Amino acid sequence: MMHASQQPGSSPHTHTGRSTARVMQLVLLATLPGIAALVFYFGWGVLINLLLASLTAIVAEAAILKLRQKPVGFYLKDYSALVTAVLLAVALPPLAPWWLVVTGTLFAIVIAKHLYGGLGYNPFNPAMVGYVVLLISFPVEMTRWLTPATILDSGANLPGLSQSLALVFTSSPALDGLWDGISGATPLDLFKHNSGQLVEQFYQGEVLFSEGRWAGVGWEWVNLGFLAGGIFLLWQRIFTWHAPVAMLAMLLLLALIFHDGGSSHSLGSPALHLLSGATMLGAFFIVTDPVTSATSNFGRLIYGALIGLLVYIIRAWGSYPDAVAFAVLLANFAAPFVDYYTLPRSYGHERRRRATEQQE
Amino acid sequence: MTADQATKIASITIHEPVIHKTPGGIHPPDNKQQSLQRGLGIAPLPEKLVLPLNQHSGAPATPIVAVGDTVLKGQKIAEPSGSVSAAVHAPTSGTVTAIGLHPVAHPSGMNAPCITIESDGKEQWCQRNPVSNFTSQSPQTLLASIRDAGIAGLGGAGFPSHIKLSAADNGQAIDTLIINATECEPYITADDQLMRSYPQQVVTGIQILAHILGQPQRILIGIEDNKPQACDALQPHLQSTGIQLAKFPTKYPSGGEKQLIQILTGKELPNGRLPADMGIVCQNIGTVHAIYRAIVEGTPLISRITTITGDACAEPQNLETLIGTPMRHLLEHCGYQAQAGQPVVMGGPMMGFALTDLDAPAIKTTNCLLAPSTAEMPPQPPAQPCIRCGLCAEACPANLLPQQLLWHAQARNHQRLQSHNLFDCIECGACAYVCPSHIPLVQHYRAAKAELRQAARERIKSDRARERFEYNKQRKQQAEAEKAAKREARRIAAEQAKATLAKTHAQQEQTPTEQASDVVQAALQQVAAKQASPEQQRAKLERSVNSAESRLQRLEKKLAEGQAESSDAPLSEEQVSGYQAQIESARLKLTETQQKLKEFNNGQQTNLEDKVTAKVLASPKQTADKKVASLQKRLTGIEEKLAACDDDDLRQALENSASKFRSKLQDAQQEASALAANSGNDKPVTDPATVAATQQALAANKQKAPLTPQQQVERLQQRMQKAEERLATLSDPVQIDALQTSLANLQQKLADAQRALENP
Ligand code: SF4
Ligand code: SF4
Fold first, then answer.
1. By residue range, what is the domain housing residue B428?
2. Which CB contacts under 8 angstroms, 24+ apart, belong to A106-115?
């Protein structure tokens, strides 16, 4: 399909027909495999998070657009708020209290996106800003993950819909007992507490690892789900391979070096680093956020590698088990700097320029 | 790589041209089939043909016909003015009915000077001079024929073809001739149709080019793989010609000259260079065919193939179209039904522009008229914010960062725009085509480019103003010192003058009748001396007009060469505005000199007598006052010009003459005041004897004035000899040019005078 240009006389007069809204829809579509895995292993909580975040995002977006005197319908239809909400929601622990989700989403949309000028102008990834704010302010709620459904103790079950809603919206002590049965650490969290055992030994002692194939029950499938979505988006040419591949390659490289053959000093296997935590979600849905990344392909290689490096450093030697959000925000800081040095070499020019250079 | 491998690869290239990859590009639906269904048609002869004087890049042509003239098909009706210009020919026989402004095809929808011809329907040809064996002709002769045929690039920019083709003639070694048959824009099939219909002619045309360029080693026809039929048509004619067909995958914009060079040679055209600098000449296949016709058939460029397509046309087709045919006429022939709000685009959907007036005529560069239906090209939705998705950068063939360019264009950050190479953007539209936020990126870039150009112009102006200011300051200090010295000298001179004047006046009073004719003689001589001979004066004025003209032409040529899109070594912004400033001042100078010449020609008859009579009959005091007044007037005139002028050379000249006038004025004022002090002298000459004598002397002078033809011839011969002597000593091409022009003028005059001598 083609479109005549808005102003007659200005070329080109045609268009691919792919709109920003369509791009966002495809991104949403691509999250589905990952979400399916999350729901399978962690139940209703995931969906409740998604719903809460989406509603909050849409209401907040509409309200702030109105405040900024922008055409609400026009901007809402770009789906960007929804994408932010979904990406934040899948990163939050299922069955988190409702206010946690709402606060994080509000922060992402109102502060991180619109206070910086709205879509296209925000220097930091809004979902990651929301996530980090929550992590710092509410560390307890943010680190209370669930045990994957397949390895719950016999007799324990993931709560049904009504129980889940009760857990999310009320905090009566009566439900505390329920929590005890289902909460559990994430693989990265767990691994951080390995003190001096060989990796193989440690894995044997933990159901999460011994029942899993590569990187912990459930988590590996969640990551593979997001990887599949990412490959779909690559195939759809929604983004280029540079940033995600650079990030994963850097992570893999460092994991190979410091895995140390699974010794007692091991900092985790490559599989653990690639297939647990928010690695794949980060690589294909956060790092590829075009607004906040570097611009040129070469710049995106550097940007991605930087995130891989930071993720590993924080995971291995920092005090947080996972690190994608921090790493992304730090790299967001660095993006303009990366851009400065990575202008592509234009046709007919001998070399790339600096962004402020005048003549060759 | 070993030498062996190298030769192997080299020998492979001879058989199968290597195709190199280029960055970016897009694959829009090509929509070419529609217009290829019906073969090549012929647009019926319209009643009226409108021929813009500027269908090419460079200076508009100059009409050489007048309203009411009858013209024959193929007759030249406008001459190129300057070297970067192209002639215009009558596409059919008929009568010139108008020469003036008419709507033309231009993005701004402007009107431009055109010649309108009403056809008589007879299609009567003028005398043509076909060349049966072009190899017997020298490249120079062929180039002259091409120039004479008004051929300007048919591919888009319309750059006069003989200029590109003179590369070899100018001493540049050309080893590669690339024929651009890419036609990468969707919808357009004019070149495709051309190759299918006239393969042999096209190949002969290429051989003509090769001959002109001194037989380059490699001759490649660059063609996209979506034209198999055209390839099949060409193939049999290429046997043992050394011309290779280089097929490559379809991708927009492979047909850009820079991109095509990269595809076929693997090399990039270095920034700021012309293809000829790399030993490459590129010509569009349509141009090649026009050259074939010009040489082999002796037919100037009066028709071309135009694609009429789009869903708003019931019968899309390629038409052999006479240049000058109104677009409406072409569209209607193809069953065009106007759709509300839908534009008709001249050119393709990627780089064409919407026509504002369908009465505009088809010109040499009209390769396509695209009339899309609403379903085909629905109005574009409003732009959304840039999400920096980078799709645009992926698509950019010039390896730019369109999203950053947009950002900096919106922020008006000129420095960043330049460091991001805004001026390497070829406005292909690939970025805007893929942008999911529907941002009219190209429009932003065009505006930003215009803004940068403007800023560069202003910067030059302010630099000049500063230099001027500093120069003036320095000059003023110098002048102060000089003035003090001069004032002293003048005071002494004035005193002497006062004494002499008093004496003369006393004599006058005593013997007015005897003195009168002497006075008249003296005055006449004085005026005549001051004016030099009118002829000399005219010659001088003509010389300056000529030199101003040739300077202007030279500058315009340079600018046009540098700016022409097809030149691909665009001048830098500074250079362009530098040239523009120079052109402006040259133009100013030209009008000024022309004006002077005109005034001179008008005033020459009466001036002399009036001046003399008034001078003799006025009292000395009146004379002095008049002189002061006239000097003052002229000085103000110069000062006004000075204020308005911003060319340094001109300014300096003006300043010099202003200071001359100033000192003259001072002298005259002193004289006048001296006379006023000596008030007895202030008496007009009323004595009848003096008046009579004056008139007599004038009459005599009048009789003397016209030269006999014999004298004229002699004088002209003298002048020519002098001019020729001078010519031998000159080295500055500008001056030589000017002198040569005036020599030609003199020759003309001499011939006239001789004719007058023979048949009195
Ligand atoms: S394609 Fe459009 S939205 Fe995407 S980066 Fe380029 S300008 Fe921005
Ligand atoms: S219009 Fe300019 S910036 Fe856009 S793709 Fe073409 S060359 Fe690149």
1. 391-455
2. A106/A56, A106/A60, A107/A133, A107/A134, A108/A57, A108/A84, A109/A56, A109/A57, A109/A60, A109/A61, A109/A64, A109/A81, A109/A84, A109/A85, A110/A60, A110/A64, A113/A81, A113/A84, A114/A61, A114/A64, A114/A68
